[in-house]
């Protein structure tokens, strides 16, 4: 199935480069390009993209607010947002995840990594891997913050097995790795993740990571 991609970035050169790269992949196509956050929201509604590659810093409406509007639109419930940042230490990354993004990329990634990231997020996985990136996110998630957070449930609503699965999701493991770690079949691991998302009201795995860190189920520095 072809992945329909919307590119949102205020730099023409960046959009053109990404468009050429995405169009070169046999399993995806660029259906629209936006130069501002507001334009990205409008095109998300009209172009019916599966995934939006969203720059954080844009005029008119920044990528975080644009992501929040897209995530809140019931008609766009299946649309995934992959945010871009110039620096990996950008604290806005966490706000983008809280707003509903499914992951983030640093702009200087290799071309193949961008394509893999699009496939990963389009498939419903969060783009959060173990190591420094997860520790960065954990630090900002647990820091005092007055920004609105998703109205999600907490781990207390889960069974012990589901809490184990959630902790592994927060550490960046995919379904196959979770299955291996807990001695489950991949299908059972996938079923657990789906049930957890349903119980917590999470739209994707990225929000599960937020719940795990903010509830203290996963402690910074342990990933």
UniProtKB/TrEMBL annotation:
Biological process (GO), any one: phosphorelay signal transduction system
Coiled coil feature spans: none
4-aspartylphosphate PTM sites in chain numbering: 55
Entry GO MF terms: DNA binding
Superkingdom classification of source: Bacteria
Record key words, sorted: DNA-binding, Phosphoprotein, Transcription, Transcription regulation
Domain HTH luxR-type: 151-216
SMART domains: HTH_LUXR, REC
PROSITE patterns named in the record: HTH_LUXR_2, RESPONSE_REGULATORY
Domain (Response regulatory) ranges: 4-122
UniProt name for this protein: Two-component system response regulator
């Amino acid at each position: 199935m072809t992945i329909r991609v919307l590119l949102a970035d205020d730099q023409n050169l960046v959009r053109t480069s990404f468009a050429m790269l995405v169009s070169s992949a046999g399993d995806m196509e660029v259906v629209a390009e936006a130069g501002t956050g507001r334009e990205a929201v409008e095109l998300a509604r009209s172009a019916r993209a599966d995934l939006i590659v969203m720059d954080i810093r844009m005029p008119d409406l920044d990528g975080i607010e644009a992501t929040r509007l897209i995530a809140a639109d019931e008609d766009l419930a299946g649309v995934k947002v992959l945010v871009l940042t110039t620096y990996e230490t950008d604290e806005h990354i966490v706000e983008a995840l809280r707003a509903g993004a499914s992951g983030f990329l640093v702009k200087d990634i290799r071309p193949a990594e961008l394509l893999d990231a699009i496939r990963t997020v389009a498939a419903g996985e969060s783009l959060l891997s173990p190591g420094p990136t997860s520790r960065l996110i954990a630090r900002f998630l647990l820091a005092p913050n007055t920004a609105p957070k998703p109205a999600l449930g907490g781990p207390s609503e889960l069974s012990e097995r589901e809490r184990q699965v959630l902790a592994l999701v927060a550490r960046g493991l995919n379904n196959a790795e979770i299955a291996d770690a807990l001695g489950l079949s991949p299908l059972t691991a996938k079923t657990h993740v789906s049930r957890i998302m349903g119980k917590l009201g999470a739209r994707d795995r990225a929000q599960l990571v937020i719940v795990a860190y903010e509830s203290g189920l996963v402690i910074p520095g342990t990933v």
